[in-house]
Amino acid sequence: MSAKGLVVYLLTAFSVAVLSVYFVNNYANGGYQNPSLLSSSKPNALPQKFGSEAKAWPELKFSWRIVLATVIGFLGSACGTVGGVGGGGIFVPMLTLIVGFDTKSAAAISKCMIMGASASSVWYNLRVPHPCREVPILDYDLALLFQPMLMLGITIGVSLSVVFPYWLITVLIIILFMGTSSRSFSKAIEMWKEETVLKKAMADKRTSVNSRGELLIDTYEPLIPKEEKTALQIMKGNLNVKRIFVLILVWFCFLLLQVIKNDTLACSTEYWVLNLIQFPVALAVFGYECVKLYKESKKRRLAGNPEHICEAAIQWTPTNLAFCALCGILGGTVGGLLGSGGGFILGPLLLEIGVIPQVASATATFVMMFSSSLSVVEFYLLKRFPMPYALYLMGVSILAGFWGQYLIRKLIAILKRGSIIVFILSGVIFASALTMGVIGIEKSIKMINNHEFMGFLDYCSSQ
Predict the structure, then answer these.
(1) Which of 30, 194, 315, 406 is exposed most, by the fewest CB atoms within 10 A?
(2) Do residues 352 and 135 lie in contact, with contact meaning Cβ atoms separated by under 8 Å?
(3) Alpha carbon distances (Å) from 52 to 37, 48, 437, 443
(4) How far is 222 from 379, CA to CA, in rounded Å?
């Protein structure tokens, strides 16, 4: 599936799924429609069950459930951070089906696990040199480009999760994950073939180029640690204090707005004002980065300089910048709906625009650390998860994130195949589609049998 084919597939499938809500609701509820999406339910409306789920917080004690959750959490965190997707699509079903948490609490703990794994992965990546060039392995230009849109998308996703029926969220996630996993898998196969050609060329003392005309022989040789640089020197080279300060400032602005919004009445004037303020905050940072990338890209094109501004192997035209904004918002929206960090979109997208797997994984994990920590702080203030379970599983994820990065990078250095990261990315997304699909279908069937409301929910009364 090509990139354009994937976009057409997603737009068509999403449109059909959203329009089918009214038909499904008519079938399950005999034609009853919820009066309004943005106003409170009328007191004389027909009584309906809306599938509200009671809070379930099991006690943390040694059992087969906690052992199995530990193993799955460790493997999910290790593979998820290596692929740059976090692993929320695996954690949420695990916490609900195996441990016994309700869906909302499971999503909150999932964010804690993603934050722990991404933080340890970022710490590890800061001590790893770029595999090809003397530049940071974290692409701060791409991080600043996507982080504001990702956080804005999370806000939209959380709002849609209140309105969208559970079965629709399940269908949309399955559609998205199947599309992105198939595209990532085909990308991995393409890279594997290119690497095979490279290895043969290296054996014959020849060089080779990939489909983008880049010299491949330099891609994996530098994976062997350079003895002339210490870990501290590599870390200093990977840190960009000014860019990190801007990212933290954006993170703090969104956190402050969310905390203030939680103390306001749903659908009041202050509530909508605080929601709308997030748009100029995100667009200001995104717009500044867009102008910078566009001007520098245009300047280099006119000068005949073929070197790319950042790791992405594309020209920063208005069309490409708009596409990146759309994907950033979509990634955040999926994160808000699912309880993940948004990496299910960002990881494949970075590969699609030409970022090499090692940098794509490190940058996506870096951005996810900000988006997931924002949600964790908010969930903590709302008391949405039990601290003992959250701390334990976060500790498991921290260890998994570090050792996952260490082992996979060692494997890449031995095999000289960066496509391993892309195969892991595709596998994690596909596994998430299966697990989310199973739990979503099971719950949807139960809702149909109980004649629960299957249409769009009232936004204000559902807060």
Answers:
(1) 30
(2) no
(3) 17, 11, 20, 12
(4) 42
User: What 8-state DSSP symbol labels residue 278?
Assistant: H
Distance, CA of 331 to CA of 24 (rounded, Å): 27
Helix axes 269-303, 241-262, angle to 10 degrees: 160
Tokens representing 249?
Answer: 């400032």
- Distances from the Cα of 141 to the Cαs of 297, 335, 447, in angstroms? 13, 22, 45
DSSP-derived secondary structure for 93-148: HIIIIII---HHHHHHHHHHHHHHHHHHHHHHHTTS--SSSSS-SS-HHHHHHHHH
Whole-structure pTM value: 0.79
Count CA within 13 A, CB hemisphere, residue 123: 13
Tokens of 254: 């969104």
- CA pair distance 86, 77, nearest whole angstrom: 7
Contacts of 127 (CB under 8 A, 6+ apart): 231, 234, 235, 238
Residue 338: per-residue pLDDT: 67
Q: Are 175 and 345 in contact (CB under 8 A)?
A: no
Nearest of 339, 388, 402 to residue 90 by alpha carbon: 339
Q: How far is CA 282 from the centre of its chain?
A: 17
Q: Looking at residue 417, what is its pLDDT? A: 81
User: How far apart are the C-alpha atoms of 335 and 332, rounded to whole Å?
Assistant: 5
241-262 vs 140-163: helix crossing angle, rounded to 10: 10
| Cα 424 to Cα 6, 79, 85, 118, 237, distances in angstroms | 20, 6, 10, 16, 28
Rounded-to-integer distance, Cα 373 and Cα 116, Å: 9
Q: Exposed e or buried b for every residue in 424-457, given b needs 16+ CB within 10 A?
A: bbbbbbbbbbbbbbebbeebbeebeeeebbbbbb
Q: Tell the residue number behind the tokens 């103390």, with chain if given.
A: 263
Residue 199: band (very low, low, confident or very high) from pLDDT cuts 50, 70, 90? confident
Q: DSSP letters along 174-240, please?
A: HHHHHHHHHHHHHHHHHHHHHHHHHHHHHHTT---B-TT--BTHHHHGGGSPPTTS-HHHHHHHH--
Decide: 106 and 95 in contact? Cβ < 8 Å: yes
How far apart CA 202 and CA 235 sit, in angstroms, is: 31
pLDDT band at 310 (very low <50, low <70, confident <90, very high): low
First to last CA, the chain: 39
